[in-house]
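ok trying this again, last paste got cut off
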Amino acid sequence: MAVHPVLERVTRRVAERSAERRAAYLNRIRDARTEGPVRAGMGCANLAHGFAACGAQDKLWLRGNTTPNIAIVSAYNDMLSAHQPLKDYPDVIKGAVRAAGGTAQFAGGVPAMCDGITQGRAGMELSLFSRDVVAMATAVALSHDMFDGALLLGVCDKIVPGLVIGALSFGHLPVILVPAGPMASGLPNAKKAQVRKRYAAGEIGRDELLAAEAASYHSAGTCTFYGTANSNQLLMEVMGLHLPGASFVPPGTPLRDALTEAAARRVLKLTDLASEYTPVGELLDERAFLNGIVALLATGGSTNHTLHLVAMAAAAGIELTWDDFDELSKVTPLLTRLYPNGTADVNHFHAAGGTAFLIGELIDAGLLHEDARTVGGETLAVYRRVPELADGRVVWRDAASESGDLSVLRPVAEPFDTHGGLHTVGGNLGRAVVKVSAVRPEHRAIEAPARVFESQEQLQAAFAAGELDRDVVAVVRYQGPRANGMPELHRLTPPLAVLQDRGHRVALVTDGRMSGASGAVPAAIHVSPEAAAGGPLARVRDGDVIRLDADKNLLEVLVPDEEFAAREPAGAAPAPHAWTGTGRELFETFRGAVGPAERGAGVFA
């Protein structure tokens, strides 16, 4: 199937834009490649330190130059449900690698924090920066020159992008991402959303709200709504870093365990000591990243990936822009309805045909680069298959040719919408991202007076006082990466949804984040440049009329240009004393070094 002309054009443009940086990156990782294991060139004391704690057989193999050694880097902790299943993976992996003729060592752990726990609290202001901490921790884990490949264990929001960024600094090594799988479906998503809105409206108390939340998030495994964590899983598969069909197999099942063992065996075949050498830095090329964007758009995935994909690509010497997302969105059909863009969860998606059906449909429509390299085989075509058990080991069979549930997953010929789930908007307030997949068409354009806030707590207080019971564009500024680490502002979703349900025209404009849980209220997020960097949001005043039109790509304040330009900025980022305690003071250097949202909001690029 020929590649869609828009995908072809965007791919060519990205390649041309990135040519110099990409060439420099590839030269760097090729220079890092050695003949045989890099540990063969170590001093004897260095190598002895590296295998001192190993068993006798592993020590014997590690002394030689023919046995591959695999690094295990894990985000395990037993507080976070998504990462709790990873506890036993290292022993499973070591056993499978040893049985296949290799060795494996637990190279290091990386931090894993949960936005669901830190939401609305001080810890959320460390969340985005944790991605770059994970990247650095991954690099430290791989820095010992003991390894010929790596298995990276992680699931959630910032962790997977951080693992990938760190791995790309060792891009001469083959890498496979190993997921844990989603928890069983709990309280239906529509019910959960309704309970949250009733609590925001003051109709029920904390006990009823907590009971609903506990029924939703109830066991080990990834939260089942289609937020950033599950967007990570989908993207890693479409970008060729998971084994085919690995993303949404539940934890604690024989198939999940067999897939983990299969990943351990597979990475051995990708090392420089085997016949299918596949370094991650070459695998993740322009085709892989644009495949990721298309998959994100086709599923209405997390807006966080307008940051993370840009940052991951930069680590591989590739420059993505929001214009690339926007142009592809116009030709990418929306093929799923998953909460918060519908009521189904990822378990329903998996049962309806999941990633294999989705990938097959997009390949046949020319919307994915089928020839992209993957860890599962030479091309993305192998990801049209689904895994199953046969005699205790994984085999792959062809996926069903039809969706098992058209209310959840559709073919390209019958999409939920003709364009993807993300739009870019711009104007005299800067540029921003709008997730439209959950927003009804009649709500995508609004023109209303602004009410300006400098924290989500201020907005919540105004809502509680009845001050927002009207048409309003809520502007929440000084929430960008330089100001306070760019926290997610999910607590704003229920009150704004209540106002919209009352018949008011409502929107949110912010330089903060909303992420994969963005809902039915139109929200222009990641506004760039941010207020703390001198962005125009700092000059908006209460009562200014703001126009947001996601379909026409507009975000503007209707104030004469000369008057608006002459205004002095109002408000300010949090004062230094507000950044003390709960670890926030440790990230002052990050806040000073972080780049703009459009460039991934990272501290490296």
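PB: full thing came through this time. Residues 16 and 398 are 36 Å apart (CA to CA).
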